[in-house]
Amino acid sequence: MIAVAGGIVVIGTGLALSGCVPAPAPAPATVTVAVTETFTPTPTPTPTPTPVAEPPAPEPEPEAPAPVPNDPAPVIEPGPAVDLGARDGANGTPVLDGAGMPINYVVVSGDSFFDIAQRFDLPQQQLLRMNPQIHDFGEAVYIGDEINLDWTKTG
Question: I need a labelling partner for 38 at 20 to 30 A (CA). Which of 46, 81, 146, 154 fits?
């Protein structure tokens, strides 16, 4: 038996629902496409670079002579001190002579003998020879110590 009551369809002894069907889809909209031609530039060829003459190869430096075992160390000629400017470990102000050459330096806090030698462009051994009052190869310098920088004098 089939009976319809309020949107419910009864078939035999079973129950079936008929209200779950989706609504029909609307008609598709009409789309108009207009094709326009775009200008494509023609590529220009890349110019070939002109060859540049290579600079001449530098001349090789002469090789240093091979060291000879037990050869005496090279002699470093003493020379005047040149102030290269304050640096870490040598921040004090030197005393200058009339020609502007440094002749004396007073050790300030944070100074080391090695850095003082570096600042004044002197080998540490030369600075030690110029300052016999410095002991322990310059390991111990104290605030207020006067360092001679005049290479013509000792002490």
Answer: 46
